[in-house]
Fold:
Amino acid sequence: MFPLNYSDVQNISEDFQKIKNKYNIIACVGNIQPNIDIPYFSIEELFNKGSREKFSKFLESEGLNAEEDIYKVAKKIY
Structure:
């Protein structure tokens, strides 16, 4: 998980480019669709149980356990 603002993603900032080069970005979560070739999930959707389950299934399809791995990753970053 990397916090980036919309303009960093749209303008392919140096920070965003470094992240893209070093990591396999599997999804984008935010409040504005950045129109990049990565699956996007809005923050609002994640408050809806059905959409949250869809997000969890997506993460599982990518080999992540949504309940465990996301919190472990976030802890390492922050």
